[in-house]
Backbone:
């Protein structure tokens, strides 16, 4: 019954196609926000070898890898029978692999608060097989609307879609995610997940490094267009949690100082919530000067976290500006500019010059090829 219901919705859903998605952290971060998930962002990774660099990105929930796909991809052992708690869905419609890759990480990260939309979708898909789960994702209006919000305006509407040929560049996204002590590669074009080995939350990146490096190396002779991104906790969310913890500790310190008869001047935010736990007070030093030094240290750390929040907010403002430019329809502006150039008699000479330059480049390239042979 579930499969029949999903298939019926799917037949209606495929009337609306999915657009291609640019592999960019600003795009992926906004997608996650549009799904209703908070406290999660996407960062582009330029290396997996620099531990200090990765430390600033952690906690990382999973990796998304973009590569040029071909039918001759290396074969891996696919699990058609796998951990029933692991979320895996097959890609059932063209161009949905970016969203599939994101959801594969979010649905397999228990520490992520999914929000109402994804929580309901995941619950509905629970008993379904991977293909039906893929159709459920493709049929979700919330997911599809978020995905297609990044579609590019086209000057012409085509009656049909040209299928990809062997000469076309086709790119694909896959995910790497730790789950229940194992690292998985989740590829919607496969029949099941690929289990890469046992791991912990601390070492799974070390296990993923050689897998991704090998994949790049095998294709590097003919292709250099790769992209690696991390789905991770927002630094703002992490910093806000730390600041809340610092305020609580400062409240305990103030309570301890008052119990020792010291003079204390504090804001309402720095007061302990309710009566402090005796164990919390007992864990603090008894010397007034030590308490004041600890208080000052916490204040300094809190200011560092405030700076992180400001940086993250600036980054998100930049993301919003970039995405607004991506979505803006520049076609009317371009057409009007061409009309103005044509009216001034400047368009035709520009076109003729462009054709001439292109022809010269092609002739030079052909000459170089002939000399090389």
Residues:
């Amino acid at each position: 019954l579930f499969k029949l219901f999903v298939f019926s919705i799917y037949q209606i859903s495929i009337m609306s196609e999915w657009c291609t998605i640019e592999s960019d952290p600003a795009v992926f971060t906004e997608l996650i926000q549009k799904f209703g998930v908070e406290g999660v962002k996407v960062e582009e990774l330029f290396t997996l070898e620099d531990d200090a660099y990765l430390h600033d990105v952690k906690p990382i929930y999973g990796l998304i890898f973009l590569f040029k796909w071909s039918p001759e991809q290396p074969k891996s052992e696919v699990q058609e029978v796998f951990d029933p708690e692991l979320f895996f869905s097959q890609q059932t419609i063209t161009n949905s692999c970016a969203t599939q890759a994101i959801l594969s990480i979010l649905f397999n990260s228990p520490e992520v608060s999914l929000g109402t939309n994804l929580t309901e979708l995941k619950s509905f898909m629970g008993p379904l097989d991977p293909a039906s789960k893929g159709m459920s994702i493709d049929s979700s209006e919330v997911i599809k609307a978020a995905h297609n919000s990044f579609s590019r305006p086209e000057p012409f509407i085509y009656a049909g879609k040209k299928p990809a040929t062997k000469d076309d560049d086709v790119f694909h996204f896959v995910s790497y995610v730790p789950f229940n002590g194992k690292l998985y590669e989740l590829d919607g074009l496969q029949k099941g997940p690929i289990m890469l080995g046992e791991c912990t939350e601390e070492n799974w990146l070390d296990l993923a490094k050689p897998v991704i490096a090998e994949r790049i190396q095998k294709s590097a002779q003919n292709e250099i267009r790769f992209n690696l991104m991390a789905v991770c906790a927002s630094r703002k969310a992490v910093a806000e949690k730390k600041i809340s913890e610092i305020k609580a500790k400062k409240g305990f310190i103030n309570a301890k100082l008052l119990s020792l008869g010291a003079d204390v001047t504090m804001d309402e935010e720095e007061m302990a919530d309710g009566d402090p736990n005796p164990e919390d007070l007992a864990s603090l030093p008894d010397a007034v000067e030590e308490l004041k030094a600890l208080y000052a240290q916490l204040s300094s750390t809190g200011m560092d976290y405030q700076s992180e929040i400001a940086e993250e907010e600036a980054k998100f403002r930049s993301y919003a500006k970039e995405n607004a430019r991506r979505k803006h329809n520049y076609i009317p502006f371009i057409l009007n500019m061409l009309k103005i150039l044509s009216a001034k008699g400047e368009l035709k000479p520009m076109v003729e010059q462009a054709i001439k330059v292109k022809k010269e480049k092609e002739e030079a390239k052909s000459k170089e090829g002939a000399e090389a042979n």
Q: What stands out?
A: Residues 153 and 329 are 6 Å apart (CA to CA). The two ends are 65 Å apart (CA to CA). DSSP finds 13 helices and six strands in the chain.
